[in-house]
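TL;DR need structure tokens for one chain.
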Amino acid sequence: DTAPKTKLDPPGGPGFAAALLKAELPPLPEIAPKPPSDPQNLEGTWFHDQLLETRIEHDMYGNPLPFNAKGQRILDDRVKATYVNQLPYANASAECIPPGQPWQIDLNFPFQIFQSKNDVTFVFQEYHGIWTIRMNQPHRSAGPSEYMGDSVGHWEGDTLVVDTLGYKRSLWVDVDGTPVSSKANLVFRIRRIDYGTPKLEIVTTVNDPELYTAPWSMVRTYRWRPDMTDF
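>> reply
TL;DR here they are.
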């Protein structure tokens, strides 16, 4: 049987989540600090300014996710377990284990970025998560060893390109359990944008032949929030 589809509908009815997000992001005062002038400096505090997607059904271009039979079966089983059998969530966050970058950066909580010559580090309020990107280094030769994988980065112009592999376990990328296997290669393209509001943009490309017939990408944006530094 096809597992039921669900949509985000928090207490308070439709529109509640959007109103809650708007309340979380009031306008910054005029005296608030500005982002660094160097576009290759990502340091500061950022907050995801899009609603959390309960289930990611389409890529950033509007195409359905290219599941293979195994990937679709895993998602259907997870959704059925939750919404039909009423079992508790079985994702990493429920076990107090680092959930991987896609889930971590999709949550509507602030995170800080710190940079040095050798590393770029994301520190997340939620789950006290940490994501360290080693700059201009090869991947470690060992097999799967990190819940957040092994991330190495380099600059392509003003975009930080991060290649991640070597996950210790498979990932959920959303609430319903859209899967990514431990053998996946995730590529993150991170850059600053400003169309009237300073933001960070992260395009995540999932390369996972174990669960998908082709790579697919999603895009998220994060607002500059120097007022949320203390967490």
